[in-house]
Amino acid sequence: MPRRIYEGYAYSDAARAECIWPLPDQTWPELTDAETTEVAIVGGGFTGLSAALHLAQSGAEVTLLEAHVPGWGASGRNGGFCCIGGDKIGLGAIRQRFGVAAAQAYFNAQRGAIDLVDDLLSTHGIDAETHSSGELQLAHRPDILPTLRAERDLWAEYGVDATLIPQQDLADQGASGTFHGGLHVPLGFALNPGRYLTGLATAAANVGALIRANSLVQSITRSGSTYKLKTPRGQLTARKLILATNGYGADGLPDWLTGRYLPLQSNILITRPLTEDEIFAQGWTTDLMAYDSRHLLHYFRLLPDRRFLFGARGNVRASAQGQAAMRARMRRDLAAMFPAWVNVETPFFWSGLVSLSRDLLPYAGPIGDWEDAWVGMNYHGNGVAMGTWVGARLADLAMGRDPLLPIHARPLPRFPLPSIRRSYLYPAILAYRLKDGPVT
Ligand SMILES: Cc1cc2nc3c(=O)[nH]c(=O)nc-3n(C[C@H](O)[C@H](O)[C@H](O)COP(=O)(O)OP(=O)(O)OC[C@H]3O[C@@H](n4cnc5c(N)ncnc54)[C@H](O)[C@@H]3O)c2cc1C
């Protein structure tokens, strides 16, 4: 029996009820028969849809099974930062562990992932309300400034001209708050994830990928050279398998996956549209996507319709009470960091699951020793670009092309004592909160 590691609330519609992003309004049929296909994909987020699109474009027969509707998971409820990321340890540590060439290849993949999303938006005519030229990282304490300087120097080694912004210049850049300086990294852009997701699903369907919604895969079995996927009312038989369930996956589906991912909640609070007076009163006028330097970081951006999006992680309980407590915490943090908005209403709040690896690196590679079966996951909360890119690389693998994955395809370690791995988050989050200090 597949086993999920959070309470049912995390997998319910309640967790995403106030999400403002549009989901595709097409009606996708459910799998209600015994069907066969060449490649079966489980999961209709950026990873699964990108794999489906690239496979169908290469002429493969592909059926994607989604438990709800495409975009129901993290892909339809994120902050829309299409940015560098995917790991949690940084290029410096990756270079130490894997060497200079592999770190360069990984950097190229991160940059290529952003370019891929950009290409998909223009090729398929998707209006995803893009804005923001790169990202702004903001120091929450003065002692973080040397770290930003070191990061600037590291970026330079990869040919990226990042700019340090001293505290006294932040206001001129329209980035006033309680910050002590910043680093602008000119990579990435912001988008409306619902619109991007809808465009991607439509593009995949237009080139022949079959999408089956409300088709929860309950078991995956291998028999000879085929895979059988059972849903409540149907069965799909395929020669090849791609798993793209990320934080919404379940232990035992299949067995190899057990303990090789750790879902973590991320949350978003949205204000009502701000007036220009309110925006100027706070001095946050930039359209740059931004985040602070805390371990439990806040991420934020002014949306094109002048609402303010404010995201954070750090809650372990998945319940209505847990969600209410996190909402209250984020409301306090917003008021502390952007004091002029202390009384601004925040009518929308939702949460979703991202996923971590034990070694804090993303994964794209085989499902154990199963032949012609792959999984892409664990983007550490940065899967808009990386998930899209990994989906394309999984399509390469299924088409027999070598996608050159020096880091992503390493053997993926299990968390120790997998069944209690969620409990590791309590001390980790407490330690991070103590290190980060109070939110001011
Ligand atoms: C609140 C929040 C904010 C975020 N902000 C950002 C951001 O700004 N930038 C960024 O880069 N990343 C962000 N992320 C992370 C990013 O959204 C994810 O990394 C990315 O969407 C993962 O895509 P995916 O396709 O791999 O997984 P998901 O989008 O989670 O899709 C997995 C899908 O699999 C389906 N599924 C699961 N089990 C089954 C089954 N048995 N049968 C059938 N279907 C199944 C689920 O229903 C789900 O739709 C954020 C995430 C959250 C939750």
TrEMBL record:
Residues 39-397 form the FAD dependent oxidoreductase domain. Keywords: Oxidoreductase. The keyword Oxidoreductase applies. SUPFAM superfamilies: FAD/NAD(P)-binding domain. GO terms for cellular component: cytoplasm. GO terms for molecular function: oxidoreductase activity. It comes from the Bacteria. The keyword Oxidoreductase applies. This is Glycine/D-amino acid oxidase. It comes from Aliiroseovarius sediminilitoris. The lineage of its organism: Bacteria, Pseudomonadati, Pseudomonadota, Alphaproteobacteria, Rhodobacterales.
